[in-house]
Every structure is written in structure tokens, then in C-alpha cells.
Amino acid sequence: MTSMTITTTTSQVPSQAPWLRAFFQRCWRVGILLLLVVASLGMSQLAVAQADTDREMVTAAPGISADQWRQVRSGETGPNYRDSRFDSNYNLINSSGETWRQIRNRWVSPFGLITVGGMIAVIALFYFIVGRKHLDEPRTGRKLFRWSLLMRSLHWTVATLFITLALTGLNLLFGKFVFRTLFGDAVWAWMISASKVLHNYLGPVFGILLVVLLLKLLKDNIPKKHDLQWFKMGGGLVGKGHPDAGFANGGEKAWYWLLATAGLVVVASGFVLDFPNYGQGRDTMQWANIIHAVGALGLTAVALGHIYIGTVGTEGSLEGMTTGYVDETWAKEHHNLWYEEVKDQALSEEEVAAQKAGSSSGGDVSATKPS
User: Which has fewest Cβ within 10 Å: 113, 168, 217, 220?
Assistant: First the structure.
């Protein structure tokens, strides 16, 4: 009798477990949504604080009056307000500087924060509602060589520099509203100083390596007719099946050309700001600063989507850029046209391990030629 009771109780557990799991998953997702709502409210307050340029002006320069601004706009500020450079008649206090401050703090900073924060919220909602994109078919265990060690090293170096520049740039733009309040002036001053040094010195390195990366990837990112269908199907989210894609799909090509256009504009404007000793005036540097900030904030927002899709968002995507190899199933589903070109070059896991062992030992191992 006792054994029957135990058996009955055990048999009920599997039928109840899915309901419990579903209940806890709903509670967990509702909690995440509430957290996002609270975070968005906090970000909106931060955006409003950024847009209040008059309050910042009172803190930065409390002695400025309407009469002084009239004097500045008339150009009669005198030698005490002049640029210290030799033979310069440029006034350090000028109305163009106030225009730059208004544009930067009233428009660029708050809307940039909304753009980056909004992208984070959209990605989080997409993940919790739609979830990760898993492979439709089981993995075959056979691998296709996709990225060489050189390309992987170049990619991760550029990616690390991009993330570092994004974080330091965000700190320079918004840090005073966050870290100064949390940690005080001493810690905040150290963070700003470190951010400025890192941003100024790593920026040119990033720019040079980005150009190298873009040149290496150019031939695989030429737009094709099937890329239009890729966008119509939302990369496979709309309709059934997967859209055609070569070595790079439509989304990857869009990211490439965004880097090749807006990315290079950000790099160029950064060089203008980083090297002021080539004769450019402050008016030029003010506009370069606005262009740099708008482009960098936009790229950061889009990069968050690229990072999500290439890591937790899509099963198998990260493997190619970490090991150099992708599974046949992944290649067939996401890059079917490229798969048809290289499917005869698939290797078993044992062959891949043997190749890596031979490469590390300096042996003569013939690796599959990457596309």
C-alpha cells in the first residue's frame, strides 16, 4: 500500500512541473518588464536633466549676464578674452560656443540617451517575448571553416576598441549626471580623466584598424538582389523558411556599409577633435563634436543589435568568430548560398581537432580555405 502511494505521487510530478515552470516564467518576465519600465522612467528623467541647459549654465558660469552676452556678440570682448595662440583674433567667449552647447545639451545628449536606452529595451523585450533563434534542424557535427585566425583577431580587436570607446564616450557625455552623484567629485574626476585619455588615444587606433577590417571584408559585402528579399522577410522572422544569403546576409551587409559610411565619418570627426594643431578653428571643432556625437550614439545603438544577434540571439553565430568553424546546419539555414559553394569542404570534429593540433605544433596541415 505504501509503495502504491509513493508511485502515484511520483507520477503526478511531471504533469505538474510544466505548469509550475510556466507560472514562474510568467512571473519572471513580468518582473523584467516592470524593471524596464522603471529604468525607462529613470532614463527619461536623465534626458530631461540633460536638456536643461540653463541650469547647467548657471553652474558652469554663474557670472554671465545679458549685458556680457551682448558684448560678446558685438565682438568687443578685448584682448583678455582672446585665443592665446600667436597672432590669433579668435575670442574664447563667443556666441557660436553657446550655440554648440545648446545643440549638444538640448538635442544630442537627451535624444542620444533615448536612442541607446530604447535599443536596450527593444532587445530585452524581443528576447523575453520571442526568445533565442534556435536551429530548425539538429546539428550534423560536421564543420565548415568560416573565419581565419587573422580575421578573428582583427574583428575582436576592433570590437573591443569599439566597446571601450562607446563606454568612455558615454561617460564623457552622461557621467556627470550618474557617477558624480553616486561617487562624489573625486571619483568622478578620476573616471572622466581616465575616460578622456583612453578615448583620445584609442580612437585613432580604432580608426586605422576599422579601415583595414572594412577593406578585408569588402568583397563579401557587395549588395546582391537576394539581399532585398532578406530584408522583406526580416531575416527569417516574417513568413516561412530562411531567405537566401551568401557569405554575408543582408543584415550583415547593412551593418558593414553603416560602418563604412557613418563609421568613417565618426572616425574623421574624431581625428579633427584629437589633433587640433592643424589649423582648424573652434567653430570647425564644435561642428565636428556634434557630428561625432550624433554618429557615435547612432552606431552604438545599432551595434547593440549586432552584438545581440551575434551572441545570445542566434544559436551557433558566436562559434564562427570564436573557433573559426560553423556547423553545417547553421550554414545551411543562415547562409545557404555560401553553404552550396563550400559544402564539399565540411570536416568532422575529429578532423577539425587534428587540424588545430597540427597548426599549433607547426605541422604541415592543409586547412580549408576560408571564403
Answer: 220
Give the chain's end-to-end CA distance (angstroms, integer).
Answer: 68
Residue 167, domain member (yes or no): yes
> What residues pair up with 325 in beta bridges, in sequence order?
145
> Grid cell 545639451 — which residue?
105
**Domain range for residue 60?**
16-112
In this prediction, residue 365 has a pLDDT band, given cuts at 50, 70 and 90, of very low
Angle at 154 between CA 123 and CA 259, to 5 degrees: 50
338 within some domain: yes
Three-state secondary structure call for residue 327: strand
Instruction: Give residue 241's pLDDT.
Output: 80
Among candidate residues 268, 296, 308, the one with its CA nearest the CA of residue 104? 296
Query: Which stretches of the chain are assigned E, i.e. beta strand?
Result: 143-145, 325-327
In a domain, 104, yes or no: yes
Q: What residues contact residue 328 under an 8 Å CB cut-off, 6+ apart?
A: 139, 140, 142, 143, 144, 339, 343, 346
Q: 304-343: per-residue pLDDT in tens? A: 999 999 999 999 999 999 999 999 999 999 999 999 999 9
Specify the 3-state DSSP secondary structure of 133: strand
In this structure, are residues 94 and 72 in contact, taking their beta carbons and an 8 Å threshold? yes
E-assigned strand segments in 102-159:
143-145
Give the predicted TM-score (pTM) of the model: 0.77
Alpha-helical segments (H) within 75-108? 95-103
**Does 80 lie in the same domain as 171?**
no
Torsion sign over Cα 138, 142, 148, 149: positive
Residues 142 and 58 in one domain: no
Extract the C-alpha cell encoding 269.
570627426
- CATH at residue 365: 1.20.950.20
Looking at the structure, tell me whether residues 156 and 100 fall in a common domain.
no
Do 294 and 339 lie in one domain? The reply is yes
